Amino acid sequence: MHGWQRLEDELDAWRGAGRRADLWCRDDDACRDSSALGRLLEIANGAHVPVALAVIPALMEETLADRLADAPLATIVQHGYAHKNHAPPGARNWELGAHRPVGEVIAELEEGRSVLAQRFGGRFAPVLVPPWNRIDPEVAARLPAAGFEGLSTFGTRETSHPFQDFVQCNTHVDLIAWRRGRAFIGTEAAIERLVAHLKARREGSADATEPSGILTHHLDLDAGAWEFLAELFARTREHDAAAWIDAHTAFDAVISARSA
Q: Which residues, at least 6 apart from 198, have a Cβ–Cβ distance to it below 8 Å?
C-alpha cells in the first residue's frame, strides 16, 4: 500500500474511534538565522503548523531572535547548553552525561535557561532537549529544581510525568539517517514509523496521550526531506482527525499557564 494512503487510513481509524491524533514538530540545533531556518518557518507557517525550535544557548546569535520576531508559530525550547561532547574518545557523544560533576552540568543548564527566558519571554518553554537525545538519570532528576518543567528525547516515553509537575514528551520519527551520510530516511520509512506510533497509541500499546513527534534538523535536511515535510504538513492539516499542537500544549497546562 502506498505510504500516504497508509497514513490516511490510520487517521481515518482515529476518526472512526471518535478520537484526535495530536502531532508535534521539534527542530534541533537552532542558533542563528539561515536560509534553511527560513525555509522551515515558511513551510510551517504556510501550513499553520507550530514548530518547537530547540535552541543552543551558548551558540545563539542575535540573528536568530531577529528572524523569530516574524515567526509567531515558533516556540523556543532549550537544546542543552553548548552542544559540546564531554564523553571520552570512542564513547557515544554526550553533553549531559556523567563525565563531569552533576553540579557543573546543572549550572550550565540553568545559565542557558536564564538566557533564553530573558531573550524570548513567554515564547520560551522551560523544556530541555538533550543534545544527541542523551541525558544521565542523575542530571535529569535535578531538572525540576533547576527550573525546568519538561524533557524531550527520542522514542516512546516510559512515563508522562517522571517527576512531580514535570512532563516528558518525546519525538518518534527522525527524518535523517545519521549513519547513512545524513540522508533523508525516505518517504515510505518516515510514514511507516509515524503510522506505527499512531497505531500503537490508538490500540493502547503506547501512551495514547503522548503526541506523535516529528524530529527535524533544518541545517541537515536534503531535498527529499524538505519535500516530505511540506507534504506531511499539508496532508495532515487537511484531515480532521489530525491536529498539530505547539510545545506549550504538548508539555502540559503548567507551561501553558506560565506563558499566558
A: 10, 11, 14, 21, 212
